Amino acid sequence: MKIEIYMKLFGKDIVVPDSVVNSWIVVIILTIFALVVNSKIKKAKVDEKPSKFLNVVEALIQGIDGLVESTMGPKNMFFAPYITTLVLYLLVANLFGLLGFTPPTSDYSVTLTLALMTFALTQFYRAKSKGFVGFFKSFTEPLPLLTPLNVIDEFANPISLSFRLFGNVLSGVIIMSLVYSALGYFAPILTPVMHAYFDVFSGILQTFIFSMLTMIFISSAME
């Protein structure tokens, strides 16, 4: 299922691809989810047993908080809300293919934007923790001769981060499209196992990898 937006701007035809539209839909879904959770938490009473829904949400938040604490350290727990948002967005976006939509993360513009956000946070907190002089000095370590390689390595991080997520999700979309085209009416019978791997397993795995690398890059820059 494809939902594209066509518009005219300054006399030029503008097409918003379905992957970007789906990204907006994911954001809307997560916003509604956050409002529902907030409403249920406000209505919950401390002397009553919480609902199963709130138990699941609490377990999810505690799991992500524990991951942030073990990866970035207790002093960097202020990153937990951002990492939680990133995990939820990637998880829903990667699993969007199960509903017949194009996953937003199969568009390189989406994955590159996420990787550039990680890159910006990495450089900002590197400069904040090391100071102006220390920021530039960190690129000359352990030897000034290695400065060009250090700079190249720093810019390679967002590229590799974005291509890893984009390539894995896009390959799953292409393979499933080919399978559906080849099997025709028999596809719904034979493809559930492939969906379980390419959409569920691979989607969850790529969410974990992207989030972990984001935490590692930022915490390493702050050391």
From TrEMBL:
Chief localisation class: membrane
Homology family: Belongs to the ATPase A chain family.
Entry keyword annotation includes Lipoprotein: no
Sample GO molecular function, one term: proton-transporting ATP synthase activity, rotational mechanism
Protein name: ATP synthase subunit a
Location(s), subcellular: Cell membrane; Membrane
Pfam families for the chain: ATP-synt_A
GO cellular component terms listed in the entry, alphabetical order: plasma membrane; proton-transporting ATP synthase complex
SUPFAM superfamilies named among the record's database cross-references: F1F0 ATP synthase subunit A (SSF81336)
Gene Ontology annotations of biological process type: proton motive force-driven plasma membrane ATP synthesis
CDD domains to which the protein is assigned, alphabetical: ATP-synt_Fo_a_6
Membrane topology label: Multi-pass membrane protein
Function: Key component of the proton channel; it plays a direct role in the translocation of protons across the membrane.
InterPro entries assigned to the protein according to its UniProt record, in alphabetical order: ATP_syn_F0_a_bact/chloroplast (IPR045082), ATP_synth_F0_asu (IPR000568), ATP_synth_F0_asu_AS (IPR023011), F0_ATP_A_sf (IPR035908)
PANTHER family: ATP SYNTHASE SUBUNIT A, CHLOROPLASTIC
Residue spans crossing the bilayer: 20-37, 79-102, 108-127, 165-190, 196-218
Gene source species: Sporanaerobacter acetigenes DSM 13106
